[in-house]
Write a structure and sequence with these properties.
Layout lengths: L1 H17 L8 H4 L3 E4 L5 E5 L2 E2 L6 E6 L4 E6 L5 E2 L3 E8 L10 E7 L8 E5 L2 E5 L9 E5 L2 E5 L6 E4 L6 E5 L2 E6 L2 E2 L13 E2 L2 H7 L2 E2 L7
Antiparallel strand pairs: 1-2, 2-3, 4-5, 5-6, 7-8, 9-10, 11-12, 12-13, 14-15, 15-16, 17-18
């Protein structure tokens, strides 16, 4: 009887370690799969009751509930990466650092979501591929515009339409650019309907300008 009781206590202690002594944040996590908030207040991903991302560089996982990719950083015991850049050895297609098609820098926002598309912070302007999440470097073409990104940092250095705020004609169509980025445009969001902003002409009293979801007037 003593051995059975000790065994039960051991199992209970093991579960306390698995779930960090705190309640999971989803029903699936209660069954050993999903996000669990640890005693440190950070989020960890479990599969089969086992914390993921504790080996190697870490692990990239997809959460169907949020339709987003996340990075579990092994340097932090598998903690969800938030607000940081991460180097991954996974495939990056034409944006790979290595000849075998692997190696890329990715960025995760304050919610842990993988950043895709344009991203601007205090250091500069970056672009992350929508398929692989890879930071673009060197000379690249985006939506018919040629860009030069620093080969080390990925910061945009120049673009063929300039970096001031103005209309640019591409393929016979006028598009509005700010800082080298086409505005009113998100090709990966079917619900996006464009953006409204005041041009110099509008500021002089001619009214608002509305761009379509393609970024044109």
């Amino acid at each position: 009887m003593r051995n059975k009781g000790a065994k039960l206590l051991g199992c209970m202690a093991g579960m306390a370690i698995i779930f960090g002594g705190t309640a999971p944040i989803s029903g699936e996590a209660a069954a050993g799969f999903g996000w669990v908030r640890g005693e440190d207040g950070c989020l960890y991903w479990y599969e089969g009751g086992v914390r993921q991302g504790t080996e190697g560089r870490g692990k990239e996982i997809y959460d169907p509930d949020t339709d987003a990719w996340y990075w579990l950083d092994s340097i932090d015991g598998g903690k969800r990466a938030e607000g940081k850049d991460v180097y991954q050895d996974s495939g990056a297609g034409p944006y790979a650092d290595r000849e075998d098609g692997t190696g890329k820098w990715c960025r995760y926002d304050e919610n842990g979501h993988m950043v895709k598309g344009w991203d601007v912070n205090g250091n500069g302007t970056y672009y992350f591929d929508y398929t692989y999440g890879a930071m673009l470097k060197g000379s690249r073409e985006i939506d018919g515009v040629q860009y030069a990104f620093n080969r080390e940092t990925g910061i945009m250095e120049s673009c063929s339409v300039g970096t001031d705020n103005h209309w640019a004609e591409i393929g016979g169509v006028q598009y509005w650019y700010e800082g080298g980025i086409r505005q009113g445009y998100d090709p990966h969001d079917p619900s996006y309907r464009g953006r409204k902003s005041m041009t110099r002409e509008a500021a002089r009293g001619t009214g608002w300008t509305m761009w379509t979801a393609e970024g044109r007037l």
